[in-house]
Amino acid sequence: MSDASVYYIFQTCMATDIGCVRTSNQDSIAFVSPGDPDERKRRGVLAVVADGMGGHNGGEVASKLAVDTICSHYFAAHDDDPLHTIEQALREANAAIFRAAEADRALSGMGTTATVLALSGRGMWFGHVGDSRLYRCSHGQVTQLTKDDTLVEQLVNEGLISPEHARYHPERNVLLRSLGTRPDLRVTAQVGDPPEVGDYFVLCSDGLYDCVDAPEIAQVVESSDPQVACRRLIELARERGGSDNISVGIIAVRPPEAVERPIPVTREMVTSNLEVR
Length: 277
Fold this sequence. Notes:
There is one protein chain. This protein is an alpha+beta fold. Helices cover 32% and strands 29% of the residues. The chain contains 8 helices and 12 strands. The chain has helices at 37-43, 58-76, 82-103, 151-157, 163-168, 206-209, 214-222, 226-239, and strands at residues 8-17, 27-32, 45-53, 111-112, 114-120, 123-129, 133-138, 141-144, 188-192, 199-204, 246-254, 269-276. The protein has a 6-stranded antiparallel sheet with strand order 8-7-10-11-1-12. A hairpin with a 2-residue loop joins strand 5 and strand 6. Helix 2 runs antiparallel to helix 3 (82-103).
């Protein structure tokens, strides 16, 4: 922390919970940071949330395969353009899941959502397929950066129903796009404004935002550190029924002095503090 070129810290926590109703957790999460500072400066850090679907154990297989493929492709690619690399990583994940489903009849029809965020000292890039979301919270304001690939979102865009009606629509979780369900896929990837101290980036599956609305998510993440906020958001979703798996990732952009000891990594929770130059 004595290095004057370090001007902020990424303080991170990602957590997943089975919820109160499901018998298995079909969500997968990951946060990856290169150990080499030069590589981290070039590539940044990567966070992924995926919400699987499919009979038997297909959803769990699809989401894990998506997360593993996206992370490995992103950091192995020779392309220095993070946006293009995210697009290609999502397409690689789609192909890998589709091939796996074709090879095993028990996994036929499996698929998953995926929301991907790359952050570095020079910018942010994100991509998604499905209805897992990415929010940016800053100084009491929250912006949803992704648009749901759902039938209900399409109805809202066409002016056929209101956003208020959409939240409670019985078909609000019907996906129009997902990874792995067809060989060709249109992915969405965008460049965002570079991170600033005071920003919070939140990735989550629908198991969270169906129970906790965006302003409340922002209030929780801005009132405590990412680990406490992750736990509180999952608790809130469970208190309100927890009818689906619940996954949330929070990346807080802190000043250099806001460094705490990292917490051990488990399958259910990933945390870290990273210097960003």
